[in-house]
Specification:
By secondary structure, the protein is of the alpha+beta class. It has 2 domains: 90 residues, no CATH class; 129 residues, Gcn5-related N-acetyltransferase (GNAT) (Aminopeptidase, 3-Layer(aba) Sandwich). The strands form 2 sheets. A 7-stranded mixed sheet has the order 7-8-9-10-11-6-12. Strand 10, helix 5 and strand 11 form a beta-alpha-beta unit. The radius of gyration is 17 Å and the shape is globular. The protein starts with a helix and ends with a strand.
Length: 228
Amino acid sequence: MKKIEEKLKNPVWYSLKETHNIHLITYDGVQFYHPDICIFGSFFDETKTANALNEYSKLAEKFFLVSENQTPKIDSNHVVLEKKINGCQMVLDTFVDINICEEIIHLTQDHIEEVYDLIWLVMPGFYKKRGFEMGNYFGIFKDNKLVSVTGQRMQTNDFIEVSGVVTHPNYTKRGYAKQLITHTTKEILKKNKLPILHTNKGNAAIPLYEKLGYKLTRDMNWWLYTRK
């Protein structure tokens, strides 16, 4: 059995091996989520990625491979690298329990459209409506509308990723994200799993995550490809 530290080095791979195996598509040892759920893929052997990307590009126009330090190989006749997102992984080191004064709602299938619209408003481009199936989502409502949300994305038997942390631009600087992250972290800990998250290097939110007990641990890079 793989130790959690090994799984954290390749979180997409082990999520698809374990909790999210139902969403797995594989080509010659390269693993992908079904594109209706999430457009992430993962690998160990970069010599196999070119053919796998060609095959997956038949299902999705844009998609990512996620790696700590390996560089995927591509067939430039079929796939082009749009950009590399220099990311990092953070892992909960010490839980910091803050006061939660807002009512936090466990979101259901009835909220899928609202979650999708809010995430695309703040972070357009990649979230899929069926991404809601990857884990639990929580939200804060104001003026009868969803204004802040946090969800769960990659999962294994050992860890769950905090993701989808967004707040409507008209409702920022009110502590909503901080409370939602804390609440989501607590829910993960209740399952005896390790809370983790991923973000871009230099993200202005990193100090907030650190104040909430998360610690930078490693690079985790997203290679964004487009079908040619």
